[in-house]
Amino acid sequence: MVDVLQSDVWKTDPEWFGPWFNTEAYHILYGHRSEKEAQDLVHALHRGGHLGAAGRALDAGCGAGRHARSLARLGWEVEAFDLSPLSIESARTTSDNLAGQLTFHVDDLRSLTERTSWKGAFDLTTNFFTSLGYFEGPEAQLGVVRGLAETLKPGGKLLVDFLNVHRTANHLVPFEKLTRGGMEFVIHRRIHGGWIEKSIQFEWKGKREHHVERVQAMTPEDLQDMIVSSGLKMQDLWGDYALNRWCDESPRTLMLAQRI
Questions:
Q1: 156 near 162, Cβ under 8 Å?
Q2: 3-state helix, strand, coil in the chain (%, to 5)
Q3: Pick from 1, 2, 185, 229: most CB atoms within 10 A?
């Protein structure tokens, strides 16, 4: 496969996530994400009593519904949404046995404040696997966190699962080639101007494709500031899906907060 010109490797659009997340190639590249991993995390949170009694939950940025299904199986009544129609189609197809317990929608994280029927409606709101931080400017990120907070009932809990920017910086692989589903993906990575960026090149049906993912390099302190300024009180911070304590080398940043 011929790479794009080096000068074009990082060219992207501020709304890159809309078209990219709705391609078949995206699902091939990331389709190895494990249903068991999601189930184990949700069960660990449940066993530790961190989520509270099963009630009404919102899974914001749900992807193909891995975590939403795990919550529903534990007795939660779950609403879940994602920007990608392809992801929601997959989520509905694989969740037929949970009909009545689980409802999926196509929606945008930035539209939460417009969903008046969801304001103050949920006992738990979740945002798993780095599905925020894509939007231009800190005010846009803060607006998303405030929208998540507004969905909670008094005493309701918010769980945010984000990458660990410290570990990402320390272990960044600038270039690699990956094969998934018989396809080769050429990947460049960098941290630039406060963004973690991944340039992805591949061929699809004889045509060269190129997408750039960008996530703001937000630290735990950045996330905590947004959560607290949105009227929530921090409760816990973990560094992985086994709920070990967070440190600079933790693979993830999981934050649990409660509406005051």
A1: no
A2: 35, 35, 35
A3: 185
Residue 1 has pLDDT above 60, yes or no: no
Please give the torsion angle defined by the CA atoms of residues 80, 240, 222 and 226, in that order, rounded to the nearest 10 degrees. 30
Mean pLDDT confidence for 46-72? 97
pTM of the predicted structure, to 2 decimals? 0.94
Query: Which CA distances in Å does 96 have to 83, 93, 124?
Result: 20, 6, 23
**SS3 of 55, please?**
coil
| Structure token pair of residue 29 | 């590249």
Helix ranges, the chain (H): 17-21, 24-30, 35-47, 66-73, 85-93, 138-150, 165-170, 220-229
82: which strand partners? 106
Helix (H) or strand (E) segment spanning residue 154: strand 152-163
Q: pLDDT, tens digit, for every residue of 72-129?
A: 999 999 999 999 999 999 999 999 889 889 999 999 999 998 999 999 999 999 999 9
Distance CA 58, CA 152 (A): 9
Question: For residue 23, how many C-alpha atoms fall within 13 Å in the half-sphere facing its CB?
Answer: 18
Domains of the chain plus CATH, in order, are 29-166+218-259 (3.40.50.150)
Residue 73 CB: number of other CB atoms within 10 A? 16
> Can you tell me whether residue 183 is helix, strand or coil?
strand
